[in-house]
Amino acid sequence: MSIPKHWDYPRFALEQRTQRGIILGFYYYPNGTELAEQFGGGWRYALMPNKNSDELFHFQESQIQPLSPEELFRQITTEIDFYQQQINILNRQLTALTGGSTNG
Question: What top-level branch of life does the organism fall under (predicted)?
Fold first, then answer.
């Protein structure tokens, strides 16, 4: 991705977790354009509140707050625990399917 030198650099990154959700995309409204006049200039972000959501919300950069390190740690460890449980379930199913042998 290339950002013109006269634009500010975005404060947030794709897939970054924030207090409002996960960033799925972002776009820039340059000052002096009709969109900037209507909605405000600068970066705008498309966020999904959570992985199970079918909603997408758009926010100006000033409306987004990053997660604290503690909140980010909690979210990630919760997700890891969930996927570990899913892996354990799949391993049990595989073991039952193969009659206890996973060598084929």
Answer: Bacteria
Q: Are 61 and 10 in contact (CB under 8 A)?
A: yes
Mean pLDDT over 32-58 rounds to 92
Q: Where exactly are the structural domains of the chain?
A: 11-66, 68-104
Helix (H, G, I), strand (E, B) or coil at 43: strand
pLDDT of 99 above 70: yes
State how far the Cα of 65 lies from the Cα of 2, in Å rounded to an integer. Answer: 24
- For the whole model, what pTM was predicted? 0.77
CB 47 within 8 A of CB 20: yes
Q: Which amino acid is at 69?
A: P
